[in-house]
Specification:
globular; alpha/beta
Length: about 250
């Protein structure tokens, strides 16, 4: 008997926001494919409880061939893809003048190239799927950006550039693919309580909290509802947008 449950890809699903998205999408009944470089105990635990519904691979988002192989393996495992959440990213703090070539290259390779290649591979699959069956709801992409893409942040210039590039990519792709019923949106969280932001100094953390109308840093759970929404038919007429989720406007 064929399995009709939607198939969602989430990159960087081993911890933080990606892990919360994997859990939410499994909870709503999706089959989920994810990757990270190292995996995590929590992901192993989820996979042991839902082996038919969770595929977790270990690959580097900076390697386009590995991403292509991961998407092909997802299709082999689950038969199709419905949603793509490009979440995996790295951050590197430091003023531009002291930022090394390798740091720039890695940020671009993981955050921008990795997300673009993952999205492209999903789009290629959707063009094939269209010839056989039209999935319902239509396919969608969620690109995980950051508030720093639009607001700016000293010490995060290259990271901000990758996120701004991702949002621009998403806006154009939404125009390119709208006629095919494929939606593309971005989300731009403010600072979240995850490993990525662990290097925030107490002073910076206090400044962000002070400037945030809702008075705290966000958590992955504050953001996964938007991923759930944007990858559902409740968002069937939403595309080309960036949804800011930052507690009201901290910079
Ligand atoms: N935390 C924040 O304050 C914040 C704010 C705004 C936006 N965001 C965005 O939200 C997303 C999730 O961030 P997070 O805070 O959840 O980060 P996180 O806790 O550091 O998790 C990042 C995830 O991406 C994976 N990853 C990193 N580099 C990878 C690579 N080269 N290849 C494959 N997987 C890789 C990590 O696994 P491995 O390390 O094992 O590879 C991990 O699963 C990112 O796009 C980030 O830019 C975060």
């Amino acid at each position: 008997m064929s399995d009709d449950r939607p198939v969602s890809i989430v990159s960087g699903g081993s911890r933080g926001l990606g892990l919360a998205a994997v859990e939410r999408l499994l909870d709503r009944g999706d089959r989920v494919a994810t990757f990270s470089r190292r995996g995590s105990d929590r992901l192993d635990d989820l996979a042991s409880h839902a082996p038919q519904r969770l595929f977790a691979a270990r690959i580097d988002a900076a390697d386009p061939t590995a991403i292509t192989g991961f998407v092909a393996a997802t299709v082999t495992r689950f038969g199709r893809i419905d949603h793509c959440v490009a979440n995996a990213a790295v951050a590197a703090e430091g003023v531009l003048a002291t930022t090394a070539d390798e740091t720039v290259a890695n940020l671009l390779a993981v955050n921008l190239q990795g997300a673009i290649v993952l999205t492209r591979e999903c789009v290629r699959q959707w063009l094939v799927q269209r010839r056989t069956a039209v999935p319902s709801p239509g396919p969608s992409v969620v690109l995980v950006s950051s508030i720093v893409a639009s607001r700016g942040s000293p010490g995060l210039t290259v990271y901000a550039a990758t996120k701004a590039g991702l949002e621009a990519f998403g806006r154009s792709l939404a125009r390119e693919l709208g006629s095919r019923g494929i939606r593309v949106n971005s989300i731009a969280p403010g600072f979240l309580e995850t490993e990525l932001s662990a290097s925030l100094s107490p002073a910076d953390r206090a400044r962000i909290v002070r400037r945030t109308p809702l008075g705290r840093l966000g958590t992955p759970l504050d953001v996964v509802g938007a991923i759930d929404f944007l990858t559902s038919d409740r968002a069937a007429f939403v595309t080309g947008q960036t949804l800011i989720i930052d507690g009201g406007g901290a910079a």
